[in-house]
Design brief:
The complex is a heterodimer of chains A (about 300) and B (about 375). Chain A is mainly α and about 300 residues long. Chain A has one domain (about 1-290): ABC transporter involved in vitamin B12 uptake, BtuC (Orthogonal Bundle), CATH 1.10.3470. Helix content of chain A is about 70%, strand content about 5%. Chain A has helices at about 1-25, 30-50, 60-90, 100-120, 135-140, 150-170, 175-185, 185-190, 195-220, 230-245, 250-270, 275-290, and strands at about 50, 60, 125, 225. Chain A has a two-stranded parallel ribbon. Chain A has a two-stranded antiparallel sheet with strand order 3-4. The longest helix of chain A has 28 residues, at about 60-90. Chain A is globular. The model of chain A has no long low-confidence stretch (mean pLDDT about 80). Chain B has 17 helices and two strands. In chain B, helix 4 runs antiparallel to helix 5 (about 105-130), helix 8 packs across helix 9 and helix 12 runs parallel beside helix 15 (about 330-345). Helices cover about 75% and strands about 0% of the residues of chain B. A two-stranded antiparallel sheet of chain B has the order 1-2. Chain B has helices spanning about 5-10, 15-40, 50-70, 80-95, 105-130, 135-155, 155-160, 185-210, 210-220, 220-225, 230-260, 270-280, 285-320, 320-325, 330-345, 355-360, 365-380, and strands at about 170-175, 175-180. Classes of the chains: A mainly alpha (about 300), B mainly alpha (about 375). The interface between A and B is large, with 45 and 46 residues.
Chain lengths: ~300, ~375
């Protein structure tokens, strides 16, 4: 279950990678750090609201605090991501592929330092908004190996609707259709009257919002966050996106869940220290043997 | 960017070999004299302990320039090979090594280190070089992360985060001259300087050689290069392995100089730092890379501290709280990041570019301009 919950967070971040890659073929290196900043915004908002735990009275109720923080971090990251695209990537759209990638690495460093200045080098604790509560154990009185923790259920219950909304958005709405068109052929889309810049900005907005939401969920689930979280989280999420087939929205979600489960199995059966090594090895193996990912590349 | 101009080669544009040779000799003499003068004058920021890391990172940048600048392959895990080189020397010469025989001559160990790093380059490169450029970048990044992690997680072999110490030192015993590199850092500076000069010479020769021209052709257009008979995989692999062995070589010297190596010396920021040197100075241009290395290296090791001290003294003079809080050393990452973004957007070819790379990096803009033109004429006709 921990694996699935972690996987859900990964899937949200991976969606951001895959959307951006699908549309302008850029590995948005700064995405992981955006996710980190999202968790910082969420922490600040939650901390400043003054909340009470479930069941208690007075102050802002926990669910409201979570909702406000979710909106705040999503909006913050979305807008920031649009600004990043404007400043750092837009002019490089016709440059050789490596130029925007290097620019993205630069942005990642800037965000990392911003996080370092904002909250300092030590890990930050999140308030425990959601009680530790095992449904099977505490409600039904059963002892099982697989636990259904309230926290994990919260993560899944927040992440999956978000993913469903994103998928429906891309499949059903006019903007979603425009995004798919731009991903297929930017020039052609421009010729039939689609405002390509607007669509790309919107894609960054969407990806950024998902990263912000994921930041909040991650913080609440793991109860802490740290300025250097972004790098490894970003790589994991990128691996997830590649695993599912980069540019493929369903693939990113599948990859996120698979990788989350794999990572927690590694922690359980081998050692937490080897988790990252396993994740990277998966990345290497996929790229070598099936570079198109499990579900292939498409949007 | 015409083919004829490119084929004419760099020789034709040389202003005269003698004058260049004199310039080189003067620069070399200044570099040789620098630590001695600094010691006499008591200028601590030009002493050899400050200069060695800068010079060694320039050697690293020259090696990475072969991969990124010449062959056009983005390698984000360059520090991994640096680590492999350093640890190879550590295993072969340190008394705390796990190997039964660990008293190998340093020079031999250094060559083996370069070889081992090169072999790792081939092992990593062989399956991955077929991939697209940005996938390769991520793969090398993953490799660069794995290597320090593996070193950390296998304490039986590598002593984990404690690292390996002490490490053997090089010595010369030739024609009655005996010399041993030890605690005094000035001889180490000269060693690094010699290696740096050799690297500049070697990479300069390589660029003009058959393989260098193959790299340039491949970088500009893989399909065209392949149809002209360039074996893409072997050519890329050679660039990758060569870059890796440069890094391993530098790692060996680094280990010998520091006498103590541990995994956190080789993390991602090292790879990025070296990459920044190349980008800042001018991708593909050897002297540009050296210049970028001097700028960034001196900023990292010397200037940041000087500026910080300056700000501190201003802060205490004016009593400004804001200035006292401002820490340039802490903001290093920020400055690097801004430098990368600004360079890519404003001048992607670097301060001191290679003419050919500049043409490539601006090629997109030209074709876009052409596209606009052709579209306009099309519409005009329709009207």
């Amino acid at each position: 279950m921990i694996g699935i919950a972690n996987g859900a967070v990964l899937a949200l971040v991976a969606l951001g990678y895959t959307l951006v890659y699908g549309i302008i073929e850029l590995i948005n290196f700064a995405h992981g750090d955006l996710f980190m900043l999202g968790s910082f915004v969420a922490l600040t908002v939650v901390g400043s609201l003054g909340f009470t735990a479930f069941g208690a009275t007075g102050g802002t109720p926990a669910w409201l605090a979570i909702l406000i923080a979710l909106v705040a971090s999503a909006v913050f990251c979305g807008v920031l991501n649009v600004l990043i695209e404007r400043i750092a990537y837009r002019r490089l759209r016709h440059a050789p592929r490596l130029a925007p990638l290097i620019s993205a690495i630069g942005v990642s460093f800037i965000l990392l330092t911003a996080g370092l200045y904002w909250k300092g080098p030590s890990p930050q604790n999140f308030p425990n908004l959601i009680p530790d509560f095992d449904i099977l154990r505490d409600v039904f009185g059963m002892t099982t190996i697989v636990q259904f923790n309230l926290k994990e259920i919260f993560v899944i219950a927040t992440a999956i609707p978000l993913m469903v909304v994103v998928t429906l958005f891309i499949k059903r709405t006019k903007m979603g259709k425009a995004m798919r068109a731009v991903a297929q052929d930017r020039e052609m889309a421009g010729m039939v009257g689609i405002d390509v810049n607007k669509v790309i900005s919107f894609t960054f907005l969407l990806g950024g919002m998902l990263a912000g939401a994921a930041g909040l969920i991650f913080g609440l689930f793991n109860e802490n966050t740290s300025f250097n979280l972004g790098f490894s989280a970003g790589l994991k999420a990128f691996t997830a996106a590649v695993l599912g087939g980069i540019g493929n929205v369903t693939g990113a979600m599948l990859g996120g869940f698979l990788l989350g489960i794999l990572a927690s199995l590694t922690v359980f059966y081998i050692d937490a220290r080897w988790e990252q090594v396993v994740v990277f090895s998966v990345l290497v193996l996929i790229l070598v043997f099936r570079p198109r990912g499990l579900l292939g590349e498409e949007v | 960017m015409s083919v004829v101009e490119a084929a004419a080669g760099p020789q034709d544009r040389r202003p005269g070999r003698e004058r260049r040779l004199v310039t080189y000799l003067v620069v070399l003499a200044v570099l040789v004299a620098m630590p001695l003068v600094a010691r006499e004058l008591g200028v601590s920021f030009l002493s050899s302990p400050k200069l060695i890391p800068i010079a060694l990172f320039i050697v690293l940048a020259l090696g990475l320039n072969v991969v990124v600048g010449f062959a056009g392959l983005l390698d984000l895990g360059y520090a991994a090979f640096f680590a492999i080189g350093a640890y190879t020397v550590g295993f072969l010469t340190s008394s705390s090594s796990f190997l039964p025989y660990h008293e190998l001559n340093f020079w031999v160990a250094m060559l083996i280190a370069a070889l081992v790093a090169g072999i790792f380059g081939v092992i990593l490169g062989a399956p991955t070089l077929r991939l697209r450029g940005d996938y390769l970048a991520i793969m090398t990044l993953g490799f660069g992360e794995i290597v320090p992690l593996v070193i950390k997680n296998t304490p039986n072999v590598t002593h984990g985060i404690l690292g390996i110490a002490p490490i053997g030192t090089p010595e010369i015993d030739l024609l009655g001259i005996q010399f041993r590199w030890g605690i005094d850092s000035t001889p180490w500076y000269y060693l690094v300087l010699a290696v740096g000069a050799l690297s500049i010479f070697l990479t300069g020769r390589l660029r003009g050689a058959r393989i260098g021209r193959a790299w340039a052709a491949m970088r500009e257009d893989e399909v065209a290069a392949a149809s002209m008979g360039v074996n893409l995989v072997n050519t890329k692999l050679f660039a990758f392995a060569l870059g890796a062995s440069f890094s391993g070589f530098a790692g060996a010297i680094w280990a010998g100089y520091l006498q103590q190596i541990s995994p956190e010396q080789f993390d991602f920021s090292v790879s990025i730092f070296v990459l920044c040197m190349i980008i800042l100075g001018g991708i593909g241009n050897i002297w540009g890379v050296v210049l970028g290395g001097v700028i960034l290296g001196s900023f990292d090791r010397i200037l940041a501290e000087l500026i910080n001290n300056g700000i501190r003294s201003i802060a205490s003079a004016t009593g400004s709280e804001f200035l006292r809080e401002l820490d340039v050393v802490k903001a290093k990452g920020f400055i690097l990041g801004v430098a990368l973004v600004v360079m890519m957007n404003v001048r992607p070819e670097g301060i001191f570019p290679s003419g050919r790379r500049k043409a490539e990096l601006h090629a997109g803009e030209e074709s876009v301009a052409l596209e606009h033109q052709s579209q306009e004429t099309l519409f005009d006709k329709q009207k």
